[in-house]
Design a protein that fits this description.
The chain is α/β, with parallel strands linked by helices. It folds into 3 domains: 79 residues, 5' to 3' exonuclease, C-terminal subdomain (DNA polymerase, domain 1); 74 residues, 5' to 3' exonuclease, C-terminal subdomain (DNA polymerase, domain 1, Orthogonal Bundle), CATH 1.10.150.20; 73 residues, Rossmann fold (3-Layer(aba) Sandwich). It is 49% helix and 7% strand. It has a 4-stranded parallel β-sheet with strand order 4-3-5-6, sandwiched between helices. Strand 5, helix 14 and strand 6 form a beta-alpha-beta unit. The chain is globular, with a radius of gyration of 22 Å.
Length: 286
């Protein structure tokens, strides 16, 4: 039930979280009270809030009131306004599309100019069609060539995948994204974003430019606490320079970026002979 108050609060909190739209001060009890007061029924309602009712929010109880205040309300409203200009990848992640995490959101936005382009993506449709037609070699080959030319796929190097391709995202993600934007919820989000004048900035790059990025096709795993940057900041730097971040160490991992008190990923990397670097070494790669 999308309109259950508790679920609405969770959706607003996710939407406003630091890794999503980073809307400062709109989380926890504030999100709860915004929903409780009927000021927010869905995340995009945040962009129609006015300072006065937000400032008057009582975060306490009737017996022990704790008013949010004009200063905090102004801070929150400024953060909401800043969110309008955040990159498309942050918006795709904030919308909580099934199967779309931060890395996938970044991959998608490198090949699409606008959120409407993602919703109508021929690349995602081609991925689905390719997997449906794999037994029909000629038609599948034509689709594969189209995807490779766009940079959204590359020829498979594995023996098992001979004559096949490896795409930026798989068919499950492609289907999930297309289904989301074709749904009543997805269509409403696109319509409201247009009405609100929200047009997230594209991070689209050409296939040639993407291949030339310093960390292109490099896979990183992060573990431990870095001294000068958060894992989130490190992830953003890696992805901005063409790399990928995954949650587990495998033979496909190129680097493990390790900080203080690393976990089992550090031990596994040592066992597998994966290169381990610290933050200083990582910064030299940027």
């Amino acid at each position: 039930n999308l309109y259950c108050p508790a679920q609405t609060t969770r959706r607003v909190e996710f939407f406003a979280a630091r890794g999503a739209l980073d809307i400062e001060s709109v989380g926890g009890i504030v999100a709860d009270k915004l929903v409780e007061r009927g000021l927010v029924k869905e995340p995009l309602d945040l962009f129609e809030l006015k300072i006065e009712p937000v400032a008057k929010l009582n975060l306490g109880t009737e017996e022990a009131p704790r008013v949010f205040g004009e200063k905090n309300a102004t801070k929150a409203m400024n953060a909401i306004e800043r969110a309008r200009t955040l990159p498309l990848s942050r918006w795709l992640y904030a919308l909580a599309i099934p199967d779309v995490g931060k890395t996938t959101a970044t991959q998608l936005t490198r090949f699409h100019d606008t959120i409407q382009d993602v919703a109508d993506s021929q690349l995602l449709r081609d991925i689905l069609e390719y997997h449906q037609r794999r037994e029909h070699k000629e038609s599948a080959k034509e689709i594969a060539e189209r995807l490779i030319k766009s940079g959204f796929a590359k020829p498979s190097k594995s023996k098992a995948g001979k004559d096949g391709i490896v795409t930026e995202v798989g068919p499950a993600v492609a289907q999930s994204v297309l289904d989301f934007f074709a749904s009543a919820t997805g269509r409403k989000i696109l319509r409201r974003m247009k009405e609100l004048g929200i047009e997230p900035k594209s991070e689209k790059v050409s296939a040639k430019k993407a291949a030339a990025l310093p960390l292109a096709e490099k896979t990183f795993v992060l573990t431990g606490t870095l001294p000068l940057m958060t894992r989130e900041e490190a992830t953003e730097k890696i992805e901005a320079l063409g790399g990928h971040v995954t949650g587990s160490v495998s033979k496909k991992t190129d680097y493990v970026l390790a900080g203080a008190e690393p976990g089992s990923k550090f031990d596994k990397a040592k066992e597998m002979g994966v290169k381990i670097i610290d933050e200083a070494g990582f910064r030299k790669m940027l």
